Amino acid sequence: MSPGSAAGDSREELDTGSTILVVGASLAGLRAAEALRERGFRGRLVVVDAEPVAPYDRPPLSKEYLAGTWGRERIALLEPQRVDALGLDLRLGWAAKALDLSRRSVLFEHGAELGFDRLVVATGASPRVWRDPVPDGVLTLRTLADADTLRRLLRPPGRRLVVVGGGFLGLEVAATACRLGAEATVVEPLPSLLGRVLPPAVGAAVRELHERHGVRVLTGVAVAAFEGGDRLAGVRLERPRAGGSGTAATGDEERRLGADVALVAIGVRPSVSWLESSGLPLADGLVCDAALEAAPGVVAAGDVARFPHPLASAPVRLEHWTNAAEQGRHVAATLLLGDARAEPFSSVPYFWSDQFEVKIQAIGLPEPSDEVVVVDGSLESGRFVALCARGGSLVAAIGFGRPRQLMAFHPLLRRRATISEAVSLLER
Ligand SMILES: Cc1cc2nc3c(=O)[nH]c(=O)nc-3n(C[C@H](O)[C@H](O)[C@H](O)COP(=O)(O)OP(=O)(O)OC[C@H]3O[C@@H](n4cnc5c(N)ncnc54)[C@H](O)[C@@H]3O)c2cc1C
After folding, report:
1. Would you call the peptide bond into 80 cis, given omega within 30 degrees of 0 as the criterion?
2. CA 161 to ligand 1 center in whole angstroms
């Protein structure tokens, strides 16, 4: 089979001496490797990752692992015996530096080069960092090493944590830190928590949950700077924006928060710098077609991939665990089936977030401006299913502590039901 040609799945072709290179040995990359073997690929399968440690799962890093209730073994993504069973050539500590598509090879930071016939791009994302240099004690959270540092700095109880950014990651860390006995403050420049992803009514329910557990929540106010010499001493806030809760909570004298630890949780950037000179289409991620192919024989999966989704008007990039796992499996099929038979990836998006005693879950693609209809429970009680509607159509459903009721809306999202149809579902 020639590199980049449409591959069939006859035994001869699956048995050829071709090489598939997977860059990124985390969730999406490993699921791709597993699925390639399950589908009968018997060629050389090389899986590389920049991190020098055995692959691990990220969601527990802000929850059970950070809290200390789960250890390292519980978050392993790949048992050592699976490496042999799958016949993987696993290379850890190998950071891809550049892709040469015409030569079909990847150059690594340490000077080595690997050739391939087909390529899986699964390099995920990395945290946006603060614009200025920061003192010790100001962190981001993406890796196991980050979680270890954060866990150490949150001890003993009584530490003052400031979380910059009221998104899912920051809120999970605030909740876990509270459980560890820290005093947590969340600072969010938008008027509402989760204001970039969910409607304000849902953000208000999250705020209520956090305040009830003692988290101090400041919205409508941004962090201006971190104070301290070598070590963090405090966080200086900007003047509150009109309408933010920070207005009342932060008078002039209060525009400084004492802090021992600060977490900068202001979003991520897709890890595509190694693709910049490759000629592949980049636009806040690697741009793919509906089957997740970016170029002949080159596919992308997980946090790094931007792709057209039937529920979205423009290509999306999702930062959810389930998406990375499902896309990893999907790209294996795309690579082995070839252009003629590859199928679009159209799974209904799903994510969850654990904060205090509540499991927050969402299916579909919610947006902050969606109309919200509560169909089960109530926002005030903190237990509910809220539907999101746009232009009369159901686009998402969000559940707080309502896993079973929420999933009832899955088939309706898949067939793009109207909001009135969805509202009547629980009445039946
Ligand atoms: C703390 C935390 C908590 C989370 N909690 C949830 C949750 O509760 N629910 C949910 O749905 N999602 C959650 N997520 C998101 C979820 O973990 C991600 O969507 C998922 O990890 C994406 O998997 P991925 O394989 O696409 O990318 P990643 O997990 O980012 O893996 C990419 C891999 O590529 C490697 N890499 C990057 N650049 C290079 C390079 N140049 N060369 C070689 N290797 C490279 C990296 O080292 C990394 O191992 C959480 C994420 C974090 C960080």
Report:
1. no
2. 24
Binning pLDDT at 50, 70 and 90, where does residue 15 land? low
Q: Domains in the chain, please, with CATH?
A: 11-126+268-337 (3.50.50.60), 138-264 (3.50.50.60), 357-425 (3.30.390.30)
**Could you tell me if the CB of 352 is within 6 A of ligand 1?**
yes
Separation of CA 303 and ligand 1 centre (Å): 7
**Could you give the 3-state DSSP secondary structure of residue 34?**
helix
Mean predicted confidence (pLDDT) in 159-169: 98
User: Structure tokens of 178?
Assistant: 């509270």
The helix or strand, by DSSP H or E, that contains position 219, with its residue range, turns out to be strand 216-219
Q: State mean pLDDT over 111-139.
A: 97
Higher pLDDT among residues 208 and 14, named by residue: 208
Handedness of CA 419, 420, 421, 427 (dihedral sign): positive
In ligand 1, the atom with minimum distance to the C-alpha of 24 is 34
The verdict on the CB of residue 275 being under 6 Å from ligand 1 is: no
Q: Which two structure tokens, joined as six digits, stand for 70?
A: 């789960």
Tell me the pTM: 0.95
> Which pLDDT score is estimated for 244?
59
**For 396, what's the count of Cα atoms within 13 Å in the CB-facing half-sphere?**
24
